[in-house]
Write a structure and sequence with these properties.
The chain is of the alpha+beta class. About 40% of the residues lie in helices and about 15% in strands. The chain has a two-stranded antiparallel sheet. Strands 3-4 form a two-stranded antiparallel sheet. This is Nuclear transport factor 2 family protein. It comes from Actinacidiphila guanduensis.
Length: about 90
């Protein structure tokens, strides 16, 4: 059951990248993440859903154009972590 919950949360998280409007991103992330989420991004560690939202919105505004994110592996849960592979593609 934990894997199913993790997979569902990850897929909801990825749907935030693919939302039809930036205005949907906060609600999708709130469904996928807890308020105490710790985000390790390209610039280091930040806390909270707002930090993840900034990352998602930055990617949605990629200079190469609007892209699409897709989970391209199963969700693996070795312990308290869930991991997966994803791919982000832009129009070009």
């Amino acid at each position: 059951m934990q894997e199913e919950t993790a997979r569902s949360a990850i897929d909801m998280f990825i749907s935030a990248f693919n939302a039809s409007s930036d205005s949907y991103v906060p609600a999708l992330l709130s469904q996928a993440l807890t308020s105490d989420v710790v985000f390790w991004g390209p610039l280091g560690r930040s806390d909270g859903i707002a930090a993840v939202e900034r990352f998602v919105l930055d990617i949605r505004r990629h200079p190469a154009g609007t892209g699409t994110m897709v989970r391209c592996s199963a969700v693996d849960m070795p312990d308290e972590w869930a991991r997966y592979q994803w791919v982000f593609t832009t129009p070009d």
